[in-house]
């Protein structure tokens, strides 16, 4: 049955390759970056790539950030070149921002056997490492055929991903038998990947690499400098990070209410997707706020506005560090939330909504440790923000709780590399 599913999948994917390319072309109408390096998506990789590299795949910004500790470890402890792949332009920009010329990077090929074989043939990687939830059957099968060991790291299976994978269970079983090691975040993830067909002997609970992230050098000084641009500590600041459609408007209405008691309140909004920057700018203006766009700032000039719109990528941590309170978006709409450890990493107390299905274990740990607060709606969010804005001791307590939470849960990198050393050429 698995072989039949694999055959059908291969035929279907080959037929869909033109459709996928058209989709990228359409997305490029609003974001021109999608028109760049299209050839890489069909396996025609640059000729300057070094054969024998370790190929690490991370789909977008969040996954790139998560594997940063692992990439830094490999760069410091191995002479083998690193090739990073991703799917989104924002992921590509983050790879460049974090690692510069220390790694090579490409867009991941479409999961067509022909395309994947072409890409792997160009790179001839000594090993492949896949971050989190990227289960691509043809990539796994072609890697095995080429005798390339594959490992998953920081693997998590959300309810949605697991349900979809179970629907294609024979295909998953056929594909997962090609993987040498699964380094998963939790016991639940271990049970799920085993049910999908992974060999239990190759499944290891290593924890979450996000706990091993380090705050960038100078991040707190950067936060202070940003704060000074709009009035210093005399102007309380709340940031809404990684926001999605439907969250900004409700947040802005809430800010209008809060400014009755906190007239000097500054709001910072960091939309998750660049294509929404202009739309969010119009929403802010329509609510009657004065707004300053970060992309228009010049030099160190002061900012006189009610709302700061961060319409530049890669700056989220800086604005978390510059704020008194962080609200993590994607949790007040049906998205599944985003990484609540990022504001905690820079010492900012965090509040998030009820939909944290993609970060269920992390959000539970944050709540249990007293490092953050979950609210069910924007009415409850108003109460939470009012309480935190009035009580600096409570903010400090949560920040300290967050630091202890991070310290207690470090170690995923060490456990992950211990298992990778058995199959990868790290020395």
List its salient traits:
single chain; 427 residues; alpha/beta; Rossmann fold; seven-stranded parallel sheet; 19 helices; 14 strands; globular
Layout of strands and helices, then pairs:
Elements: H1 2-27, H2 38-41, E1 54-57, H3 61-66, H4 68-77, E2 82-86, H5 89-99, E3 104-107, H6 113-123, E4 127-131, H7 137-145, E5 150-155, H8 159-167, H9 169-176, E6 181-184, H10 187-195, E7 203-205, H11 219-229, E8 237-243, H12 248-261, E9 266-271, H13 277-286, E10 291-293, E11 307-309, H14 316-321, E12 325-328, H15 341-345, E13 350-352, H16 360-369, E14 372-374, H17 378-390, H18 392-408, H19 412-420
Parallel strand pairs: 1-2, 1-4, 2-3, 4-5, 5-6, 6-7, 8-9, 8-12, 9-11, 10-11, 12-13, 13-14
Short structural description:
With 427 residues, the protein is of the alpha/beta class. It contains 19 helices and 14 strands. It has two domains: 2-207 and 411-420, Rossmann fold (3-Layer(aba) Sandwich), CATH 3.40.50.11720; 219-408, Glycogen Phosphorylase B (Rossmann fold, 3-Layer(aba) Sandwich).
Q: How would you characterize this protein structure?
A:
The protein is of the alpha/beta class. The protein folds into 2 domains: 2-207 and 411-420, Rossmann fold, CATH 3.40.50.11720; 219-408, Rossmann fold, CATH 3.40.50.2000. It has helices spanning 2-27, 38-41, 61-66, 68-77, 89-99, 113-123, 137-145, 159-167, 169-176, 187-195, 219-229, 248-261, 277-286, 316-321, 341-345, 360-369, 378-390, 392-408, 412-420; strands spanning 54-57, 82-86, 104-107, 127-131, 150-155, 181-184, 203-205, 237-243, 266-271, 291-293, 307-309, 325-328, 350-352, 372-374. The chain has a 7-stranded parallel sheet, sandwiched between helices. The radius of gyration is 22 Å and the shape is globular.
């Amino acid at each position: 049955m698995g072989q039949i599913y694999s055959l059908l999948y291969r035929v279907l994917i080959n037929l869909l390759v033109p459709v996928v390319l058209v989709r990228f072309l359409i997305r490029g109408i609003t974001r021109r970056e999608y028109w760049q390096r299209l050839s890489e998506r069909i396996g025609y990789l640059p000729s300057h790539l070094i054969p024998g590299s370790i190929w690490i795949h991370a789909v977008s910004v969040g996954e790139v950030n998560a594997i940063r500790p692992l990439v830094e470890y490999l760069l410091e402890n191995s002479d083998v070149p690193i090739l990073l792949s991703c799917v989104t332009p924002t992921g590509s920009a983050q790879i460049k921002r974090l690692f510069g010329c220390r790694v090579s990077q490409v867009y991941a090929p479409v999961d067509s056997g022909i395309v994947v074989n072409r890409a792997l043939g160009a790179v001839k990687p000594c090993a492949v490492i896949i971050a989190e939830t990227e289960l691509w059957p043809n990539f796994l099968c072609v890697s095995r055929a080429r005798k390339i060991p594959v490992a998953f790291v920081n693997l998590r299976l959300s309810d949605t991903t697991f349900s979809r994978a179970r629907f294609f269970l024979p295909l998953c079983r056929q594909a997962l038998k090609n993987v040498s090691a699964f380094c998963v975040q939790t016991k639940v993830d271990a049970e799920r990947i085993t049910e999908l067909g992974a060999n239990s002997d190759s499944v290891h609970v290593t924890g979450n690499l996000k706990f091993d992230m380090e705050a960038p050098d100078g991040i707190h000084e950067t936060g202070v400098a940003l704060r000074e641009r709009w009035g210093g500590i005399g102007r309380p600041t709340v940031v809404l990070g990684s926001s999605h459609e439907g969250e900004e408007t409700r947040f802005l209405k809430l800010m209008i209410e809060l400014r009755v008691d906190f007239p000097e309140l500054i709001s910072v909004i960091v939309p998750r997707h660049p294509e929404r920057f202009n739309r969010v700018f119009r929403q802010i203006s329509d609510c009657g706020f004065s707004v300053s766009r970060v992309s228009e700032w010049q030099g160190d000039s002061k900012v006189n506005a009610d709302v700061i719109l961060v319409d530049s990528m890669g700056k989220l941590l800086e604005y978390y560090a510059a704020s008194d309170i962080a609200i993590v978006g994607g949790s007040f709409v049906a998205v599944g939330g985003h990484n609540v450890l990022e504001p905690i990493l820079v010492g900012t107390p965090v509040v998030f909504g009820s939909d944290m299905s993609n970060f269920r274990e992390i959000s539970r740990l944050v709540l249990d440790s007293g490092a953050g607060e979950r609210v069910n709606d924007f009415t409850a969010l108003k109460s939470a923000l009012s309480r935190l804005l009035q009580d600096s001791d409570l903010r400090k307590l949560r920040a300290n709780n967050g630091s202890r939470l991070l310290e207690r849960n470090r170690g995923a990198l060490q456990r992950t590399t211990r298992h990778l050393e058995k199959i990868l050429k790290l020395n």
